[in-house]
Design brief:
With about 130 residues, this protein is α+β, with helices and mostly antiparallel strands. The protein is built from 7 helices and 3 strands. Strands 2-1-3 form a 3-stranded antiparallel beta sheet, with no helix packed on it. The protein starts with a strand and ends with a helix.
């Protein structure tokens, strides 16, 4: 049997009433605290189950991507959302880059501060 949430307009009490679909249109609902019939039904949150593909498609919306080039904070938020949508641990390096973006550091500044790939220094590569 479904439950419905109401708020009393007189005393402000929020309460739940269980009733069948058939009863919903016929049964008068009154506040259990003050007895008032001046109650308003409140809709609860609705969760929608979506596929991983649908969630990732929403993240790749061209309108959302257009502003990312100019706003490192927005890019950081987007990367954090994408990481969460994937449901995998992307490692401490990913978290560090996203943290820096969310603080407003540009991708170029972050790249310049990161060590070279493979851990080799630029001098070691030139000498080798």
């Amino acid at each position: 049997m479904p439950s419905y949430t109401f708020v009393c307009e007189r005393c402000g009490l929020r309460f739940t009433v269980r009733m069948s679909y058939e009863e919903y249109d016929r049964r008068a609902v009154t506040c259990p605290r003050c007895g008032s019939a001046q109650v308003q039904r409140k809709l609860g949150r609705v969760r929608m189950l979506r596929s991983e593909e649908a969630r990732l498609n929403d993240l790749a919306d061209p309108q959302r991507l257009a502003a990312l080039e100019e706003d490192p904070r927005a890019l950081g938020r987007m990367m954090r959302e994408m990481g969460s949508a994937l449901g995998e641990d992307l490692g401490p390096e990913f978290d560090e880059v996203v943290d820096r973006l969310e603080k407003g550091q540009s991708p170029d500044e972050i790249e310049a501060a990161l060590p070279p790939e493979g851990g080799a220094s630029a001098e070691g590569e030139a000498a080798g």
